Known about the structure:
Layout: E1 8-12, H1 16-28, E2 33-37, H2 41-52, E3 62-66, E4 77-80, H3 96-113, E5 118-121, H4 126-137, E6 144-146, H5 150-164, E7 171-172, E8 175-176, E9 184-185, E10 191-192, E11 195-196, E12 201-202, E13 206-207, H6 210-231, H7 236-250, E14 255-257, E15 260-263, E16 281-284, E17 287-290, E18 293-297, H8 304-323
Parallel strand pairs: 1-2, 1-4, 2-3, 4-5, 5-6
Antiparallel strand pairs: 7-10, 8-9, 10-11, 12-13, 14-17, 15-16, 17-18
Helix pairs in contact: 1-7, 3-4, 4-8, 5-6
This protein binds nicotinamide-adenine-dinucleotide.
The site of nicotinamide-adenine-dinucleotide has 32 residues, from helix 1 and helix 3.
Amino acid sequence: xxxxxxTKIAIIGAGGVGATIAYACLIRGVGKHxxxxxxxxxxxxxxxxxxxxxxxxxxxxxxEGSDDIGVCAEADVVVITAGAKQKPGQTRxxxxxxxxxxxxxxxxxxxxxxxxxxxxxxxxPVDVITYITQKLSGLPPARVFGSGTVLDSSRFRFxxxxxxxxxxxxxxxxxxxxxxxSEIPLWSSASIANVPLKDWAVPRHGKLSxxxxxxxxxxxxxxxxxxxAGKGATNYAIGLATxxxxxxxxxDENRILPVSSLLNGYRPIGSADDDQAIDDVCLSVPCIVxxxxxxxxxxxxxNAAERAGLRNSAETIxxxxxxxxx
Length: 326
Ligand code: NAD
C-alpha cells in the first residue's frame, strides 16, 4: 500500500443504500478508507469487488469488506444502513421493531470495534433508530445523528425548483420533523435567491397557490412510496445525501443540514410563551455539522401551523420509541 489510510468510514450493510453511499463517497473523494460490513458474505464480497474495480477512476481510496465486524476497527465514522427496508405499502415506522432488534446487537459490537467513532444512522425509521442508538451507546448526543430530512429537503427543493424554473441550488427550503409521514414543509421561510417563496412569481403562472404547495408537499411525502413501487428501493439520492453529510463532518465544514439529532428544550423562532419545547426525541431541524458530529440545533423561524406540526411529529416519533420500550 502506497500510503496509510487517514480517514476511515465503516458502512454497515452492503445493500442498495450502503453500496451507493460508498459509490457516492468514492466519486466525491469523501474518506480515504472504506470498510463495509454485512452478515451476507457473498453480497458484501461482490459489492466490494465491483467498487474496487472502479478505484482507478476516482480520487485515491481503499476499500475492504467482510462479514466479520472487525473490519470496522478504528473507524472514524460508522454509517449504519443495515436492516429491513420498506415493502410496497409499508411505512417507515412499520420497520421499527425489526431494525431496533438489529441495532441492539450491532451497536455494542461496533462500539468495541470503533470506540472513537461518530455514528451516522440511515436505517429506517431513522429518527427512532437514532434515538435508540444514542441510548444504547451512551455516547454524547453530538456523536450520534441520523440522515433525517436531508433527503426529504432535497426532494422538496427539487420540486420547488422545477415548478419555479430555477436551479435547485438557488432554492432554500427545509422539511423538518420525522423522516416519514408526519414531516413538515417550512413554507414560511422558503426562499429563492433571498426572495421569500410566497412572493416569487413563476413566469406565466404567478405566485404558488395553496394547491401548488399541497401538490409539491404530497409529492415529497409520496416520493419513497413511488420509487419503492417502481424499483423496490431508493438508493441514489440517499447515497448522495449521505456523502454530503459525511463530507461536512470529515471536512469540519460547520455546514447546516436538517439531520436528525437528540433535541432537548428546542424552541423555533416565533414560539408562543405557552408552546411546549421539543424534548427528549430525535428529529430533524437545521443543525450545524462538523468534525465533532452534530452541533447546535438552530432555532429557525416557524409559523404557528409549522410549530404545531413539529410538535405532532415529535409525538409520533416518541410513541414509536415508547413502543420499543425506551
Ligand atoms: P437492503 O435490503 O438492500 O440492504 C440491507 C442490508 O443489510 C442487506 O445486505 C443485509 O444483509 C444487511 N443486514 C441485515 N442485518 C444485518 C446485520 N445485523 N449486520 C450487518 N448487515 C445486516 O436495504 P437498503 O435498500 O440498502 O435499505 C437499508 C435501510 O436504509 C432500510 O432500513 C431503508 O429503509 C433505509 N433507507 C433510509 C433512507 C433515509 O433517508 N434514511 C433512505 C433509503 C433507505
